[in-house]
TrEMBL record, chain A:
Coiled-coil boundaries: none
Subunit structure of this chain's protein: NDH-1 is composed of 14 different subunits. Subunits NuoA, H, J, K, L, M, N constitute the membrane sector of the complex.
GO cellular component: plasma membrane
Reaction(s) the record says it catalyses: a quinone + NADH + 5 H(+)(in) = a quinol + NAD(+) + 4 H(+)(out)
One MF term in the entry's GO annotations: quinone binding
Protein name, UniProt field: NADH-quinone oxidoreductase subunit H
Automatic annotation (TrEMBL), chain C:
Similarity comment text for this entry: Belongs to the complex I 49 kDa subunit family.
Catalytic activity annotation: a quinone + NADH + 5 H(+)(in) = a quinol + NAD(+) + 4 H(+)(out)
Keyword vocabulary terms for this entry: Cell membrane, Membrane, NAD, Oxidoreductase, Quinone, Translocase, Transport, Ubiquinone
UniProt subunit comment: NDH-1 is composed of 14 different subunits. Subunits NuoB, C, D, E, F, and G constitute the peripheral sector of the complex.
Topology in the lipid bilayer: Peripheral membrane protein
Protein origin, superkingdom: Bacteria
Lineage: Bacteria, Pseudomonadati, Pseudomonadota, Acidithiobacillia, Acidithiobacillales
An example Gene Ontology molecular-function term: NADH dehydrogenase (quinone) (non-electrogenic) activity
The name this protein goes by in its record: NADH-quinone oxidoreductase subunit D
Main localization category: membrane
Keyword hit for Cell membrane: yes
Phosphoprotein listed as a keyword: no
Subcellular location: Cell membrane
Length: 319, 199, 417
């Protein structure tokens, strides 16, 4: 009976997550509209919320088209991999102490990193199997970018793990009570934030799908719900990274008056808002400059951060 | 519970073996590499079943997330002509077979003498076992020197790989980021009137 | 050992940053451009040939459709060519109105360029900010000519009509409430000149906004400084004109070097770049917008003080007033002849050029004394700029090609003609 209830609850979680992703697409368009002196979708439903549903319906109703020159099986698998890798990460993400599917798993953090390497496959296979030159360039860029930024990201997390002495997300969140870890790890926070944007491939770092250069990058040939899966993966990845930032650095569920899980959601929403804001303001660096920045600036900084943290931990002990 | 684990073990092992076989039989090198990825995944799942979660996830992180991506990266960039590769198949067949037989014999010899089944099975895992910590403690005390040596060898390999493949391209126009950012509008822009002297 | 072979990529014509219908065949080594080969002709409409079969007046609207981002400047060049052949002087007020609208057009063009350039480099907001200002200027176009883009406002002999005394206002609609309507109409109470003057007061602030987002932005500098460098000698040799030439540091601007319309009487400066890279071209164009704004303000000032005719009163060239047509048979005949047979232009040839926003836009006209040009040749600035694509892009990366292409301010209407 409990098993059955759990299955139902997981299914509900899944639906809620998909709903959030759909809502974020709409929210981003509205926020960008606000920042860019225009309206954004405002016709369907109150404030235009119905647009999210309409978009999803539109994607679902489109013809399921596989280009004749694509390698079919991989072409079909790639978007699913992307959406899955983003969705599965939420299994270990705690909202508050005890509110999580596997938050006290001792190596939850590693699972998220492992899933992000799965994400690379989705993007790469999608780009390669499309058999399109723009898609291939997008895929190459995506892989180079994801691998390059996974390193500083992992190193920034390592410093955090060193401080907190735990690989479990629940434990890491608990380490941020009552003082958020950003106080101890300001540099690590910046590194993780920048690498996080690169991992989600959002605008300052959206080179893999840079519209003005590569049309739509690795998903140039995709349409309908297969494209929708990539979209879903991108926005869920965004939520995941934002939730990780607020969980690891911004003190997770701590905050006055309101219940813990609400604080967690608010903080995540705040970080997502910053992501939207960045998208509206910044131009896009060039591909080589992005990698240059990742390897020659972010990686040494991350190593330095780790070293300093280790020294500090040896001198004054961990949390 | 025990039964579920056993079933899962056989499922994962079966997929692992099949995909390992497909790695060497697949015609397209890209598919070979992908089957290898699948094999790694199943190996990781087996580790998880054994309770070695850290090892399992590290296998995915390192092999799937880094090594195989680079493999695929290279394989996909190459325009491999399968006909050319198959040309010398018959010519090299005897040599290949001989090496394969030697390999099989060696394996048999190892398994014959290996203490399989003679080592007592490990006891039940304690409830609060943290295998990350246990691994770390073992690696940084007992096996410290091998660990460091391995690290140095890897470093050498990285440097060698970069030094060997680094291609200077004098025909490209490259920019120094520092100089780019240091540019100021005052230095760049000047306003002129262009009108001749007033009559 | 397998050889490293180059990759050939078809950039456009269906590409988001092909700026219309450019087809660019890129030969790539990795992401580095080995060869960039622009293919043109996908928007060819044979304007030059069409012109041989239309009267001088009927040809005018085709000029709008050449460089469809700087419409009135094209008209200006054509009108100057026809006027030169006719040997007529147009009224001073018409000269000032033309100067005013040339500069409005320059601002319009540079705003679109800036927005598109920023969008191509990835900064999407600037595009929408630029369009906010373009909207006001488009309204001015509409107020004087009735059309937002293809105005056909300049005519041989002056301009079609004087500036309206009332700026058109927004009307009530179910989609906006009274408060919003009032906001929209706040600066539309007076004449068109009042509206333009209000715009010139607001505009420097807007340019500051764009510059805040871009000029000192690290990423922006990384994407533009040192990209697509053209030395002054090469710029001259390649036939560059306009901001492309001035960004390389060559002091050349037809408004000053061969003054036309009312430019000789106005105070403005010419911005010059130093290195000739994308950043210089950006700075030059932004500075040009500020200078244009000053010119507009001066023109508005002059036009307020000096009423007068805006069209020559030679009925062989300009139509007689409608009122006169009701009473005078001769005027009616003139009107009929002018709009059916057209004006007769004496035989001869002429080249007339203006400093269009993109560079020197010239019309070469050859008349055999008939009512249609015998031959017309259009000198489009974008054509020679695009021809330098290979030289500018070689050795850069794909992303730079986009930046270089955008910085050329390519419009296919004039290149393919």
């Amino acid at each position: 009976m409990l098993f059955f209830a759990q299955i139902v609850a997981m299914f509900v979680t899944l639906l809620v997550l998909l709903g959030i992703a759909g809502f974020l697409v709409f929210a981003e368009r509205r926020v960008l509209g606000l920042l860019q002196n225009r309206l954004g979708p405002n016709r369907l439903g109150p404030l235009g919320v119905g647009q999210a549903l309409a978009d999803a319906l539109k994607l679902l109703c489109k013809e399921d088209f596989v280009p004749p020159f694509a390698s079919g099986l991989l072409y079909r698998t790639a978007p699913i991999l992307v959406a899955f890798s983003a969705l599965a990460g939420f299994a270990v993400l705690p909202l508050a102490p005890g509110i999580s599917w596997a938050g006290d798993w001792e190596i939850g953090l590693l699972l998220i990193l492992a899933l992000s390497s799965l994400h690379v496959y989705g993007v790469f296979l999608g780009g390669w199997s499309s058999n399109n030159k723009f898609a291939l360039y997008g895929a190459i860029r995506a892989v180079a970018q994801l691998i390059s930024y996974e390193l500083p990201m992992g190193l920034a997390l390592l410093a955090l793990v060193l401080l907190a002495g735990s690989l479990a997300l629940q434990g890491l969140g608990a380490a941020g009570q009552p003082v958020p870890l950003i106080v101890y790890q300001p540099l690590g926070f910046l590194i993780f934030f920048i690498a996080g944007i690169a991992e989600t491939q959002r605008l300052p770092f959206d080179l893999a799908e840079a519209e003005s250069e590569l049309v739509a990058g690795y998903h140039t040939e995709y349409g309908g719900m297969r494209f929708g899966y990539f979209f879903l993966g991108e926005y869920l990845g965004l939520v995941l990274i934002a939730a990780l930032i607020s969980l690891l650095y911004l003190g997770a569920w701590s905050g006055p008056w309101l219940p813990g899980w609400l604080w967690m959601l608010l903080k995540t929403g705040f970080v997502i808002g910053i992501f939207f804001w960045l998208r509206a303001s910044l131009p896009r660096p060039r591909y080589d400059q992005l990698l240059h920045w990742g390897w020659n600036a972010l990686l040494p900084l991350a190593i330095l951060n780790l070293l300093l943290t280790a020294i500090a931990a040896a001198l004054w002990g961990t949390l | 519970m025990m039964l579920t684990t056993t079933i899962l073990f056989y499922v994962f092992s079966a997929i692992l073996l099949v995909s390992a076989l497909l790695v060497i039989t697949a015609r397209n090198p890209v598919y070979s590499a992908l089957y290898l990825v699948l094999a790694f995944f199943n190996a990781a799942a087996l580790f998880l079943l054994l309770g070695a979660e850290f090892l399992g996830l590290i296998l995915i992180l390192v092999y799937v997330g880094a090594v195989m991506v680079l493999f695929l990266f290279v394989v996909m960039m190459l325009d491999i002509n399968l006909e050319r590769l198959k040309e010398g198949f018959l010519r090299y067949l005897p040599l290949g077979l001989a090496i394969a037989i030697v390999g099989v014999l060696e394996m048999v010899a190892v398994f014959w003498t290996a203490p399989i089944g003679r080592v007592p099975a490990p006891g039940p895992i304690p409830a609060n076992a943290d295998n990350t910590r246990a691994l770390g403690e073992l690696l940084y005390t007992h096996y410290l020197y091998p660990f460091e040596i391995a690290a140095v060898i890897l470093l050498v390999a990285i440097i060698a790989a970069i030094a060997l493949t680094l291609r200077r391209r004098p025909d490209t126009k490259s920019q120094a980021v520092g100089k780019q950012v240091a540019v100021a509008v005052r230095e760049r822009l000047r306003m002129v009137d262009l009108r001749g002297p007033k009559p | 050992m397998p050889e490293i072979s180059n990759f050939t990529m078809n950039f456009g014509p269906q590409h988001p940053s092909a700026h219309g219908v450019l087809r660019l065949v890129l030969e790539l080594d990795g992401e580095v451009i080995e060869r960039a080969d622009p293919h043109i002709g996908l928007l060819h409409r044979a304007t030059e040939k069409l012109a041989e079969h239309k009267t001088f007046l009927q040809n005018l609207p085709y000029m709008d459709r050449l460089d469809y981002v700087s419409m009135m400047c094209n008209e200006h060049a054509y009108c100057r060519a026809v006027e030169g052949l006719l040997g007529i002087e147009i009224p001073q007020r018409a000269q000032y109105i033309r100067t005013l609208f040339d500069e409005i057009t320059r601002v319009l063009n540079h705003l679109l360029w800036l927005g598109a350039y920023a969008l191509d480099v990835g900064a999407m907001s600037v595009f929408l900010y630029c369009f906010r200002e373009r909207e006001d200027l488009m309204d001015v176009y509409e107020a004087v000519s009735g059309a937002r883009m293809h105005a056909a406002y300049y005519r041989p002999g002056g301009v079609y009509r004087d500036l309206p005394a009332q700026m058109p206002q927004y009307e009530a609609s179910p989609y906006r409430d009274a408060k919003r309507l009032e906001e929209l109409n706040a600066n539309r109470g007076g004449s068109v000149l009042d509206f333009i003057e209000d715009f010139t007061r607001r505009f420097p602030g807007y340019v500051d906004e764009y510059e805040t987002l871009l000029t000192d932005n690290r990423i922006w500098k990384q994407r533009t400084v040192g990209i697509g460098v053209v030395a002054p000698e090469r710029a001259i040799a390649l036939g560059f004109t306009g901001p492309m030439l001035r960004a390389s540091g060559v002091a050349w601007d037809l408004r000053r070097t061969q003054p036309y319309a009312a430019y000789a009487d106005l105070d403005f400066e010419i911005p010059l770049g130093k290195e000739g890279d994308c950043y210089d071209r950006y700075l030059v164009r932004v500075a040009e917008m500020r200078e244009s704004n000053k010119i507009i303000a001066q023109c508005v000032d002059w036009l307020r003080k000096n009423p007068g005719p805006v069209m020559v009163d030679d009925y062989k060239v300009a139509p007689p007033p409608r009122e006169e047509m009701k009473t005078s048979m001769e005027a009616l005949i003139h009107h009929f002849k002018l709009f059916s047979e057209g004006m007769i232009v004496p035989a001869g040839e002429i080249y007339a050029a203006v400093e269009a926003p993109k560079g020197e836009f010239g019309i070469y006209l050859l008349s055999d004394g008939a009512n249609k040009p015998y031959r017309m040749k259009i000198r489009a600035p974008g054509f020679s700029h695009l021809a330098a694509m290979d030289e500018m892009a070689k050795g850069h990366m794909i992303a730079d090609v986009v930046a270089i292409l955008a910085t050329m301010d390519i419009v296919f209407g004039e290149i393919d003609r």
